[in-house]
Amino acid sequence: MSYNLLKGKRGLIFGVLNDKSIAWRVAERAYEEGAQLVLTNTPVSIRLGTINELAKRVNAAVVPADATKVEDLENLVRKGMEHVGGQFDFVLHSIGMSPNVRKGHTYDELDYTFLQQTLDISAISFHKMLQVCRKADAISEWGSVVALSYIAAQRTLYGYNDMADAKAMLESIARSFGYIYGREKKIRINTVSQSPTPTTAGSGIMGFDNLVDFAERMSPLGNANAEDCASYIVTLFSDLTRKVTMQNLFHDGGYSSMGMSFRAMKVYNEGLEYRDVKEDKTHR
Length: 284
Ligand SMILES: NC(=O)c1ccc[n+]([C@@H]2O[C@H](COP(=O)([O-])OP(=O)(O)OC[C@H]3O[C@@H](n4cnc5c(N)ncnc54)[C@H](O)[C@@H]3O)[C@@H](O)[C@H]2O)c1
Fold this sequence. Notes:
Elements: E1 10-14, H1 22-32, E2 36-40, H2 43-48, H3 51-57, E3 61-62, H4 70-84, E4 88-93, H5 99-102, H6 112-135, E5 139-149, H7 163-185, E6 188-194, H8 200-203, H9 208-218, H10 226-237, E7 248-251, H11 262-271
Parallel strand pairs: 1-2, 1-4, 2-3, 4-5, 5-6, 6-7
Helix pairs in contact: 1-10, 4-6, 6-7
Nicotinamide-adenine-dinucleotide is lined by residues 14-17, 20-23, 41-42, 45, 66-68, 94-97, 121, 148-150, 194, 196-197, 199-202.
């Protein structure tokens, strides 16, 4: 159902890989709500994924850019603005990747070159994107920028590895840049901390299926899926949330406020055979 919340607005969306991507759902919802879109991803993700299929469906341009490369971002912003014929009213940063997770390095045996790549791709790219947009004056007054985060920025979840550090940094960038961009142009910047969601990036996390099940049992409303996330983000892009900025907004069915639920405790009691796992490396 459309409420025309984004009628006449222009948006730039990072991170559509395939139809499981959270960004895919956001693009679909934004289009339904009346927005004109530019989609972007790395050349390799464009080649291996299905972004062009979505672009056809939502009548969007696709401009390749590696979000860690400032020149790529400058080119993207220039071409993107040409395509939509002006400034963007909203931007979605939906990017995450850890080479340490991919290659199975545990948190106490990080490869530091990989760590730098994790931070660059998953957090510093957000700063680069904002700095490039600001220099090009690419976002309109009262525009809205959202990046996707996860509760591992605040709490330790085994297996999330150096992505936890990246998410903490991402949320900090939203606050620090939110002050500057808000003061100057009334542009708001927030992060949405989403439930575990079965996507390509999500499924790379160790023990992901169990994490989804645990979060589902812990959350009074159940996990938020990608469609739920897209609907929430659309409200943040709309004019209905103009005074919300520099926030990390939990979108997780209540998970972040829980300590223990009846459903989780029941399974724990019934299924538990206590084992000391401290010597087991796979539990890091
Ligand atoms: N899936 C989950 O459980 C979950 C939960 C909370 C937050 N998030 C966050 O949501 C965001 C989107 O992830 P997703 O779950 O939709 O998975 P996804 O794999 O569909 O999306 C990740 C995207 O990052 C892009 N990317 C990687 N390196 C890039 C680079 N250098 N430049 C530009 N783009 C690059 C990939 O091409 C891909 O499109 C990420 O920030 C992720 O951490 C995911």
